[in-house]
Amino acid sequence: MRARAQPCLLMLLLWSAACSGLGLNFREPDIQLDHAVLRGVGLTGGNLDLVMKVENPNNFTLQGTKLQLGVDVEGSHLGDITYDNDFTVSENGQTTITLPLTFGWAGVGSAVRAALSYGDLPYKMNGQATLRLPGGVKTVVSFTHEGRAPLIRSGGNVAIPGVGQ
User: Which of 2, 82, 113, 119 sits at 20 to 30 Å (Cα–Cα) from 160?
Assistant: First the structure.
């Protein structure tokens, strides 16, 4: 019986060593806004789909369990999103995640209305992703991005109240 236990113990030790070294080799994924889709607007606000691109620079698959972010447009806070669905990013791969955001005109002012008419969205976002690494290790990765993302209007022309009227 002792002879069988030694190879199992050796395998367990090797597996533990490999997992403990994972933290040293882990590289944070790149999470950024790829583009936004304007689904509709009305007198009180509108609906945007934020299409996020998640790139995994690691040689192992990442399992995401939560994605949270806040989005500002031209200095006005547009909204916060919590995505609680699991997602997977293959090793050295990428995936897209669509996050729906409902926003109101109150509090975001004319700067956001003007930004929505540009054809691209000047944004700043802050967030964090909760990931499960191989071996069951959980980690939280914070991210911040600022830039301009293409803005696509679904369903043809979408009229933005107070813009071009």
Answer: 82
CA distance 10 to 4: 10
Q: Write down the domain spans for the chain.
A: 26-153
Residue 139 belongs to what H/E stretch?
Answer: strand 138-153
Nearest to 148 by CA among 127, 119, 126, 128: 119
Show the CA angle centred on residue 133, arms to residues 97 and 87, nearest 5°.
Answer: 20
Alpha helices in 21-158 (DSSP H): 22-25, 109-117
pTM of the model: 0.77
Q: What is the pLDDT of residues 61-89, one digit of tens each?
A: 999 999 999 999 988 899 999 999 999 99
Instruction: Tokens for 122, please give them.
Output: 């000047």
Q: Which CATH number fits domain 26-153: 1.25.40.10, 3.30.470.20, 3.30.499.10, 2.60.40.10?
A: 2.60.40.10
CA 164 from chain centre, in angstroms, equals: 32
Q: List, for residues 28-55, the tens digit of each pLDDT value.
A: 999 999 999 988 888 888 899 999 999 9
Residue listed under structure tokens 């995505």:
83
